[in-house]
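Look over this entry.
=====
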Amino acid sequence: METGVVERPTRRPRFRRASEPPAFRLTEDDVEIVRQVARHRFISSAQIAALVGRSIDRINDRLLRLYHAGYVDRPRAQLDQYPTGGSGRMIYALADAGARLLRQRDGAVHANVEWARKNREARHPFIAHQTEIVEFRVTMEQAARRRGEVRFLDPDEILAAAPEEIRRARNPFALRAKLSHNGIMREIGVVPDLVFGLMFPDGSRRCFMVEIDRGTMPITRSDFEQTSFERKMRVYLAAHAAGQHRDRFGWRNFRVLAVTTDQERLHSMTEALRQIHIAGSPGATLFLFSTFHTLRGSDPLVQGWEDAFSREIALT
């Protein structure tokens, strides 16, 4: 009987680039994948597949090649959660070669940053928060695509009509407000996790600022110097009362969407909101609330949202 040697395929390391990268030729689809990774800071392969309209198997194959060629990174901090995430949930970030590629292709200004170092320094809570933001955005984009008559407006498109000094700011959507607490006036800022819009067939649009709450921040605090969700809500209300949305972005109005972990925390948020009274603001009606679980099982354009008085509200 003849015997032979069967060669087993080499399993490449997941978090260390191979000394012999797989055969690779950069395609336009690959460049778009790198753009999506750069746009979202940290993003899973499943989210990339949804955004570019490719199968998860195809995206995983291209991401493997892009990773070993040095265009994208796999942040090691995700090892804290990776055993339960599966290969379809591998998290990616922009790598130095990818930044150079986008500088050549698009003139991207972020190309001068040492992304490999920044990715090594990123901790798991920050990565998890960023991927939750991307998950929400993907959910809203796909919902708008399914309906057809509603178009999703991304932050760049919304900013296009803003003054140049706003567009060039480090955090162009940041809001600041002066709040009085115990007789002391303080100026406090808030930066939304995401800003997007919905465009309707008649040309009208609605703009939204989003807060993704993973349950790690106290809802209220006795010390106003420390961050809390209540303090964030006060800033949004005061900024709206001052007309910052009109002066900075040219919006007629906007609403704040808060997505949190569970119904109990949601109800604590709405209870805190109902106690806030800021002259000239729309009050509790500025905010709509939902949970991650609720949005996963609904059409988020028309279902899953409630106001501070437990009334169901559709975004459309």
